[in-house]
């Protein structure tokens, strides 16, 4: 989904009202309704039964959206408190109208007109279970001041006790640059209106934005199409456009056969996690070759998978001759994953090079399959078939011969460099995972959370990715879908439990729910 500047969004709003006859009232109603649905979804996923929802409103249209959202939430019998940074006398236009409807619905709106009022509230009243930030919108460029700054500090001070949802963008953040010139809300989720704002997709904004969802307010494609593409957001709506509905007259052979080359005697769990990610993602069949010494261990974890033993090195890693076994059956497979838990043994490199040179089907290189190519990324360009690389910053740094710090400072630049060098689809993992492929815009994923920074989550992602490719998705589409679904699964686990307790294996079972949300069936 394309991202826009604040000025572009204002222009789109004007065209919607002038050229397409959508009233400003209707647009605000759609925005507020979408925010209310997002808050309801968060409450459901977090397991709240009777949450207290605090809605914070400013004086502009962002505050108007907050008033509308509060009204819709109250209609669903949620306990809603509305707090305004300012007074009703400061309102005009659609925000004033929305405030009038709030009053007509007999929803109390408490007005706190000074910074001191908010400071006193901070000492007197704890925050709710969900705090909805509707204080500032895209029209603000400088630091928050006065009562709004006080309200931002109140929200942040209570964020340890409640989830924070920002409307359009976290208050205090610059919509175009992602800069934080003063106090800024730290959101768990940002529900942006219409289209993502460019500043939200920049590295400096990630810490404030949290997960990023988009409310559809009915912008026609003919208005979006002329917008110059830049960094784009991966959304559920994008994925639904290429994730096919399953037909009844099908069988397991219809949905592909994923092959996984993974594991070592030191890391049998990596193979198991990759298999789990693949099996939970719809491939008709999933096979694996693992070192003979761990075959029974891996097979015992995953009875649905076909697990075969392969020759081992003296250190318990997989020998390069494993490819002879796989190649003999290559016509059975649809896509290959190689790398998780394989170690950086010289035989691993020999195996990876053989797969690249000889595989007639798409290949995902992950983990140690990337590490053994340190400083030799150009070898990927010689591959016989399409390749997807899934590096974290350290692995990408090793491929390019630079430090992980350089990668983190220049994530998009280094990503595009490796794409140019290899001709591959590349997934640069981390907060704000980036996906790029030759000839297309860089896409960014904003699902996921810090709890996923734990061992094994990348193995699940790689298995999910090869499964989607085995089912026939193009590598770029499979990569975008995989990172979104993987992150969304992590968010669901963390909401019901805790980021601190999240384990990679939790994600496998959670994929059931996130596929259900995306695909309905």
Give a nutshell description of this structure:
With 521 residues, the chain is of the alpha/beta class. The protein has helices spanning 6-18, 24-45, 61-75, 93-104, 115-124, 146-157, 206-209, 221-224, 236-240, 268-279, 295-301, 322-327, 346-358, 368-371, 393-400, 404-409, 411-422, 457-470, 475-496, 504-519, and strands at 52-57, 79-85, 109-112, 130-134, 163-167, 189-193, 211-215, 232-233, 257-261, 285-291, 306-310, 335-338, 363-365, 387-389, 425-428, 434-436, 443-444.
Describe the overall structure.
- By secondary structure, this protein is of the alpha/beta class.
- The chain has helices at residues 6-18, 24-45, 61-75, 93-104, 115-124, 146-157, 206-209, 221-224, 236-240, 268-279, 295-301, 322-327, 346-358, 368-371, 393-400, 404-409, 411-422, 457-470, 475-496, 504-519, and strands at 52-57, 79-85, 109-112, 130-134, 163-167, 189-193, 211-215, 232-233, 257-261, 285-291, 306-310, 335-338, 363-365, 387-389, 425-428, 434-436, 443-444.
- The strands form two sheets. A ten-stranded mixed sheet has the order 8-17-16-15-14-13-12-9-10-11, sandwiched between helices. The chain has a seven-stranded parallel sheet with strand order 3-2-1-4-5-6-7, sandwiched between helices.
- Strand 1, helix 3 and strand 2 form a beta-alpha-beta unit.
